[in-house]
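The instructor's notes for this session suggest beginning with a concrete chain rather than abstract definitions. Hand out the sequence below and ask the class to guess, before any prediction is shown, which regions might be ordered.
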Amino acid sequence: MTGTIAAEGRDRLDVPKLTDWMTANVAGFEGPLTYAKFAGGQSNPTYRIDSPSGAYVLRRKPFGPLLPSAHAVDREYRLIDGLYPTGFPVAKPYGLCTDEGVIGAMFYVMGLADGRNLWDGTLPDYAPAERTGIYDAMCDTLADLHKVDHVAAGLGDYGKPGNYFERQVARWTKQYRASETETMPEVERLIEWLPRTLPTQDRTSIVHGDYRIDNMIFANDEPRVIAVLDWELSTLGDPLADFSYFLMSWVTEPEGRSGVLGKAGGDSGIPTIEAMVERYCAATGRDGVPDLNWYFSYNLFRLTGIVQGIKKRIVEGTASSAQAERSAAGVYRLAKASWGFAEKAGA
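After discussion, reveal the predicted structure:
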């Protein structure tokens, strides 16, 4: 979400129909509107809408054939709509449109969070103390999410009961199979090993599903999260899934994204993984976390399934970002890394 580009070809929106819908459904909206597509993101295409009444964000499903249960913008909207009144930092929800006749796909409109969107987890442009503040804010915000009373927020049925990891391993196995383009030995081994070694779940909370530095907006003048973005993978589940995914940054190479492997600790200002564990546990009343290697393997397996879906959409011509093809090339690396952590966990 670091910048916008002109929407071209099939990414264009029907301005007259969208204006009519926003006039009827978005409180306080005044036309005319202009729009541009955010350059980042490759799952649900996202646009900036500008009008005399202010700036908005529109997020829609991709056009074309989609995998079942994928790109569920209606679930995203429901989650944001439930969280917003609790005070948890999400963009203000304005409305959901399930009528595909308006712009060609289901979409929702939310407020634009005016702040900093950070992509590089090493935070090269920040002083050590600022880095510490930003990482502490991310950790505290995640702990706050996991402490939200999801039943009181109207989200008691947002996920299925039972072992979250069992459901997720089954889901991403199914998603992987649905978008499989070739046989990968590491994935076949993971599909056999993960269901046999599921950890026990002792807590249930809202889980974001993709909690990393570039999926949030920070205040311009302080290390505070003002909006967590991209709730497409959210559900009710084991909060350790979210927390271990957040910790993946510490075992991921720094390549301009969230990875900080080898960059944390010392005088860097980036807290160590041990410091993040201690801070999160203190905030959520835990006395520690289990061995993380299984969780890292699981998270990388899930990412393998997601990126395989992107790869499949490239084949079908429905991927929405120029970055998609480069991302899809990483599916082999993800599968290998996932199996590497499985071996560390005893596979």
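Then share the key points. The domain at 128-344 is CATH 3.90.1200.10 (Aminoglycoside 3'-phosphotransferase; Chain: A, domain 2). The chain has a mean pLDDT of 92.
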